[in-house]
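Dear colleagues,

For the upcoming journal club I promised to circulate an example of a predicted protein-ligand complex. I picked one with 2-oxoglutaric acid because it came up in last month's discussion. The inputs are reproduced below in full, followed by the predicted structure.
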Amino acid sequence: MRRKIAQPKNRSHVQSYTHALTRSQTKKAKNTAAKPSLITRQSLCDAIPWFRALQGSTYQNNGICYGILIDADCGPRFYLDEEIIITRVGGSYQKGHDGQLRLMQDQHLDRYPAKALLASLQKSTPVGMVLGNRNARVGAGLPHRYNVLAYFRVTDIWYEGIDGHAGLKVRFEKVSLVEKSWWVASNTPDPLPYDQRPLIQPEVGRCTHCNTETPRVFQQGWMCLQKDCAHFWKIGIFDPPANLIYHSSWLEIRCNPQTTAIAPHEPLIPTTLASMTASNGIDATSRDTWRGIVCPRCKKCIQRVLWHGWKCTIDPPVEGLPERCTFEQTMQLRPVSIREVAGPRGLLPIEMDDTNDKNDGDNMAIGQGIDLLSHLPYHKHTYEIPGIGSVTHFLANAGINERPGGPNDLFNILQKEPLGLRRFPLDIAVVTGMLTSHFAVNYGMPYKYVVSVASKGFNEAPDAILRCLGRLTWATEQAVTAAGGSVLPPNELLALGYFEGMKIGFHDDGEKSLGPTIATLSLGASSTMKIRMKHQYYNGQSRRGVLLKKDIILPNCANEKQRQKWKDQFENGTIRKEVYDRRRTTLFRKQRLTGESPTQIQLDLQHGDLVVMHGEDLQKCYEHSVISSNLLRFALTARHIKTDCVNKAELPKGEFTLSPDQVYHGN
Ligand SMILES: O=C(O)CCC(=O)C(=O)O
Ligand SMILES: [Fe+2]
């Protein structure tokens, strides 16, 4: 390989981006810092397709490394300039008491992640480089938590002596030798074209013991870098000094871009934004549109938080702090027609046969009742869970949906209204900064669903939202009356918006402040709702194997008959508590009970359908999820929030009066 040196060096420094903040500003900045959702690893992985690794420093796919994150401690002799990076290969390191990483064992080229880096080298695959601001050497000067540098090629991987073991190091060379690197000081001269750089031959040496020829890596002398050779990591017969530095030829040699072509597999920075704004026919709610982007102004990775587009800084500006990036890209959402997304039932006139009534998936048939007549034009399916509650599904059809002010109109209007829908960080996320996979806005009494959401008063709600509330009030009354309960009218409405591929994962709606009834109206794309027992009630014990103090035996739970028998024996005094507990522990252990409950009730929710879940224990013992199927769906869920659980100042938010045409009578 013919390689040349870079331009005569005015060795550059990483540019300093740190704002000069006073101490009080720094404190303020910490307190009011952008929500973690905007600066986390999740933002990076969401925006960058070649780095979808939420953990570790390497992103690999099919055995090839496509992206590297350099953060925190990069091992001895970490090196970075405008075109070269030399760093350790991850894995096999552990943090000691002093906080320093130590190599615990020899690394091997045939193990990941080294193997994936070697594959990138052999297959000439460029590796995208991200630099984190926790990097001990250069991090402090960087503008963001994660900074996309450029595409690099892997030129060499070799062994060094590290902490008494053979540790792997890797040398990366920037793919483009033409563009000036953004991370160097602005007064660094532009790079010389490759043709104008002086030719350099690498210095090589041959080991007198293993006879292998390798380049000279270090200034202090040539060393054999074959880890199994007796002369490994020696300069002559001596151990190398602690202050080893790289030899100039090792740093300055470059691959000839003409003879060693290397093509990036995709743009370093995805073109999502450009393609969205060029109105080139991409649907504004398709899967690609709710990925993150790299801010074209400040280069921060940002997630799609807002319904209408991307905004670099979501939080309002804080007085006394430097202004944050104001980049904002809203997009016109192409109106989605009901014909494009609705399932067949929402588009067909009512049929009096029972074909519609086979649509509700493969249920485990917990007391399923079908009522085709009493709620006409709806069909009604009810699932009774004895002692727990019921799920009522009102199935709509074109007759219902096409009425003025009905689901078709509501779907069209909700697309045009500025509802204030946005994604929220999940409180219980496994990875910090993980956002919900749906957009949400709450109206009326405050309600905390899977995340905390600020509520808007019903006096701010558009007509369409109040019409939905009218329908949900009707469905609540019908289902609760049929179940023989007393109706608590809804005073809260959570609107969810689902783009293509969005969902709400398993959760319950069982907050202390909630009444026992939850009603949902589906608009637009069809979706699948699954209801299953919570893990502990299905198995009779917690995930950690702790027995339920009072076993609740739900229909179809694991070991239903056996558990019921022992529970009866315990309750009527035939067996003592120790025996009861021992029997259950032994049985559960033997069966290694750890699985989730199979779906107990599965509903095919179509445009215009209403679902009412009723019964407090339903939310205590069961959980539900909904997966949307197509470009656009809205789910409007109304509940009754107990007013004594609400902060007095917020009570007016839940007050509303429906006009006669917002009230619904079930037609
Ligand atoms: O999208 C749906 O139909 C259900 C929404 C839901 O479960 C909720 O808002 O808690
Ligand atoms: Fe829910």
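Two points we might discuss: The domain at 343-534+601-643 is CATH 2.60.120.590 (Jelly Rolls). The first strand starts at residue 3 and ends at 5.

See you all on Thursday,
B. R.
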